[in-house]
Amino acid sequence: MSLNYQDEKLFLGKTGDLQEIMSANQGEPCYVYDLNNISIRYKNLKASLSGLKNLKVHYALKANAHPEILKHFKSLGAHVDVVSSGEIKKALENDFVGSDVIFSGVAKSAAEIKMALEVGVKQINVESPQELLRIGEIAQSYNKKVEVAFRMNPEVNPVTHPYITTGMTENKFGMDQSFIPELVRILKNFPDHLDLKGLTMHIGSQLIDLSAMKEAIQKLRSMYREFEVHGFTMNRIDIGGGVGIHYDKMDEEADFSLMNEYGKMVCDELSDFEGEVLVEPGRVLVGRCGVLLCQVEYIKTTSHKVFAILNTGMHHIMRPALYQANHRILPVVKNDQLSKKVYDLVGPICESTDFLGRNRNLQELKQGDYLAICDAGAYGFCMANDYNFHEKPKEIVLK
Ligand code: LLP
What we know:
This protein is an alpha/beta fold. It has eleven helices and 19 strands.
């Protein structure tokens, strides 16, 4: 259970009384997270993939790296996927060890690769021949052998917002088949320092339609066979993250059906694979665990619109401005007696893109009302900034 009304009051989980939390926080914007929601979703995802012989879940911590959330994932038995030395540090500060870490990302600096070697990450996901060469040279200078996987671009066309696709021809991510000979040449120059362990992919985020992912896994397996023809014995396939959540629905049932559909599809494609199957989920595990609370500062009526001007905005949650994402927005205290009105919900930032929701039909609002921006657990606080020198919101974790 994520958000739910108990009588007229909005709760996160069973016990997170959001009105009480907001009053204690004096109406200042804050993110609230429920660890229990994460546990339920993590267990469901694992169960849906139980047909795989050797599964490793590497939580993509870019989605939400709150220390208590990271520690919670560790206690559940998860590993992590990171994309920078900052994220490696975050993981290690919060109970993970080097061998829990898959290091992804398209622009790893020499210093970041050195750090990865020093802490002994499990695998570096390589995105270009030049990066492979750099890793080989650094590993040689450390006299270490480093386990790598190649991020392949399966050139599929997932259904999602264009800003969050990563597995299409035009994207900067991954490598297509034409890179294989060059990669093989580099590997052969570093037989004692580069150990090709497998292939990896990540085709995009917020996928509700899984057909492109299925096609991508099939293409990845055929590239895998091609490397084997070149004489490499690998034992890992990493299929990335990407499973979406139903932002439009209050009830999480549709999310669980999607997770189960995902599990079935992945097991159909990979249950005969003898090696490790790695997954890197982010949003599907934490998207529903969090909410961003805020307060109405002003109601402003123009000849065209009624604006509810809030004390939070695109600096606290960028998703609506950046991807036209629709997060449901709910009153923290519901009152069915009030008539409904259509609002544009906007923030304090001096930009017209600073909206959280447009043309939303809500109970009549007044100055001081508390609102909840729903399903803000993934890519919420981690993308927040202090533009216009506004403070970042607090984060509160329910016990
Ligand atoms: N693995 C890699 C290599 C990734 O780049 C990502 C996300 C993930 C795993 C996790 O993907 P997920 O399961 O969360 O879809 N800021 C955007 C999302 C960007 C995702 C970037 N990569 C948003 O707010 O929708």
